[in-house]
Amino acid sequence: MFGKRVLAVRHEDAWSVFYVGPDGKRRPATDIFVPGGVTEPDLVEYLADLCHEWASEKHPEVRRLDPSAETAGAANGGMSRVSESEREELQSWQRRMIAIFVATMAALVGLAAVDLIFGLSDTAGLLGFLALLGMVVLSVFFQFGQRCPRCGYRLGLKSGLVVPERCAKCGVGLR
């Protein structure tokens, strides 16, 4: 629902509504009330009218998830996965992160080795330090620049050099 994962379950003549967390756990959505008279075919339209304030440019609509996809995703905690093209983009980010890390570590070891063997002048040491600092800033830029394709959450906040299994915010499978 507008980027939030919500589950509505009908019990006889009443609806129960839950927020679904990234781990698949449910908590009651006490701020969403669906009257018993709302039929299943009208549910999406009712929820869109009720919660229209949640709409954003990235999540402009309420979408009903395909129950068969949900069943297929049960091994994934009931969460969906990113598309193949989104997964390739995330793998490209992961390769960049690993390459930047390896290059930074190689530069650090190389600079330390040159200093130990030959001794660096103050100017050369300062230039080496500034180059390493630039590489660290670049790696931080790339680390926190990648966002979840579904919810926009910055993936670098909860991951190291690799793509996390799931988005920490929306729970979508990323690998």
Description:
The chain is mostly helical and 175 residues long. The chain folds into 2 domains: 6-64, no CATH class; 84-157. It is built from 4 helices and 3 strands, in the order E-E-E-H-H-H-H. The chain has helices at residues 43-50, 67-72, 84-118, 122-145; strands at 6-11, 14-20, 26-28. The chain has a 3-stranded antiparallel beta sheet with strand order 1-2-3, with no helix packed on it. Helix 3 (84-118) packs antiparallel against helix 4. The longest helix is centred in the middle third of the chain and has 35 residues, at 84-118. The chain starts with 5 loop residues before the first strand and ends in a 30-residue tail after the last helix. The relative contact order is 0.14. The model is unreliable at 67-79 (pLDDT under 50).
Features:
3-stranded antiparallel β-sheet, 2 domains, about 40% helix, rod-shaped, mainly alpha, about 180 residues, about 10% strand
Low-confidence runs (pLDDT<50, min 5 residues)? Answer: 67-79
Largest sheet: 3 strands, antiparallel
Shape: rod-shaped
Helix content range of the residues, please?
40-55%
Cα-atom radius of gyration: 24 Å
How many helix segments?
A: 4
Pattern of helices and strands: EEEHHHH
Question: How many strands in all?
Answer: 3
Domain unit count: 2
Spatial order of strands in the largest sheet:
1-2-3
Q: Structural class of the secondary elements?
A: mainly alpha
Q: How many angstroms separate the termini?
A: 23 Å
Mean pLDDT across all amino acids: 80
